[in-house]
Design brief:
Strand content: 15-25%
Low-confidence stretches: none
Radius of gyration: 16 Å
Order of helices and strands: EEEEHEHEHEH
Structural class: alpha/beta
Largest sheet: 4 strands, parallel
Number of helices: 4
Mean pLDDT: 88
Length: 152
Amino acid sequence: MSRKWQVVPSDPRIKKDQVDSNTCIVSNSIGGKSVQCLPSFIIMGFEKCSTTNLNIWLSYHPNLQGKWFEMRFFDKLKNDVELENRWPAYLRALPQVPGGEQGVGKYWTFEKSPSYATSQMAISMLARLMPNARLAVSIRNPTDRAYSHFLM
């Protein structure tokens, strides 16, 4: 599965329409230049459907970079104006690419937020910012899921 990465310098004038999944922003930091990329894929699902386990398993892969917590960025947005103003903060919350610009294309970033699966607005906002992002949806037999929730 070949994917193209786009590397752009940090610029406050970059609009959401100019980025997509795998867009990497290079910015100056204290230790030199840092690179952060919008996710290549998003993990979503439903409560008690192993999204956390999937996140843990994927984090052991040396070329995948994700966060341990649920970012829940897209389900907090209400309209395009908020998306336009807040997507740079979303990018900054994602992990840095190891190796800076040389690491671009060698590492895939991902995010896990199960709540996106139940929010039509979150899916819509996600599609507006990253129309080419891949989605991994974790589902489970509803009876097993309900029983697992009951045992919590």
